[in-house]
Amino acid sequence: MTIEIILIFSLSYLSGSIPFGLILAKFFLNKDLRKIGSKNIGATNVLRTGNKLIAGLTLIFDITKGVIPVLFTKEYFTDLVYLSSLAAFLGHIFPVWLKFKGGKGVATYLGILFVLSLNLSFIFCISWIIISLVTKYSSLSSIVSALIIFVFSFLNYNFELTSYLFVTFIIILYTHRQNIVRIKNKSEDKIKL
Questions:
Q1: Beta-carbon contacts of residue 153 (< 8 Å; ≥ 6 apart)
Q2: 10-residue block means of pLDDT along the chain (193 residues)?
Q3: 8 Å CB contact between 102 and 41
Q4: CA 35, CA 41: separation in Å to the nearest integer?
Q5: How far is CA 46 from the centre of its chain?
Q6: Separation in Å, CA 185 to CA 38, 63, 169, 172, 180
Q7: Straight-line distance from the first to the last Cα atom of the chain, in angstroms, rounded to the nearest whole number
Q8: Would you tell me which of 21, 27, 28, 59 could form a disulfide with 41, CB atoms 3.0–4.6 Å apart?
Q9: Which one-letter DSSP state was computed for residue 125?
């Protein structure tokens, strides 16, 4: 079992740690995301390059790198699905390839959520869209949507899923700490879709 834990954690983490935004922006746009906008490697910052196609591809790949390891684990190592989920999520935020300085984890989190609970993933998407249309803040949309699905899970009392969603919500708050300060100071960039 110990070997399985190490294997699942390692593979999930490595899958989550692939910096697709950085790779796609460099390959197709010859730009280093770490020197643009928020200096983040996620899809929102790719969008700031002005290329919606590459931003869309980044979003899809970042979602997929959460889906694949968790789907595999759910199928073959069911007891380790939450370990796999957390490892893939942390891989995106703290990738070994970039000195542990990665993205904010939301797209990968969404991919993981698609596997863990389709209903909650749709609630997250709908919440994110509504909040972003009203506020134009991607960061605020992510934080509030993560809170909403945690509350939904808590009310339905699935202890393991709720525990996972609580931990990931706290991490999402942490990764967006500078965004929260900027929103408070009214200096946060608004998304332009």
A1: 117, 120, 161, 162, 165
A2: 91 95 89 80 83 91 97 96 97 93 93 96 96 92 96 90 97 93 87 69
A3: yes
A4: 10
A5: 14
A6: 16, 31, 23, 20, 9
A7: 46
A8: 21
A9: H
Rounded distance between C-alpha atoms, residue 103 and residue 130, angstroms:
23
Q: Which of 59, 188, 187, 77 is nearest to 125 (CA)?
A: 59
- In angstroms, the CA 148 to CA 150 distance is 5
Task: Give Cα separations from 24 to 33, 70, 78, 111, 119 (angstroms).
Answer: 10, 23, 33, 19, 31
DSSP state of 42: S
> How many residues are present in the chain?
193
Angle, to 10 degrees, between the axis of helix 118-135 and the axis of helix 138-156?
Answer: 150
CA distance 177 to 26: 27
Give the Cα separation of 127 and 26 in Å (integer): 32
Quickly tell me which residue has 């593979």 as its tokens: 11
Q: Could you give the CA distance from residue 127 to residue 154 in angstroms, rounded to a whole number?
A: 17
Does the predicted TM-score (pTM) go above 0.85?
yes
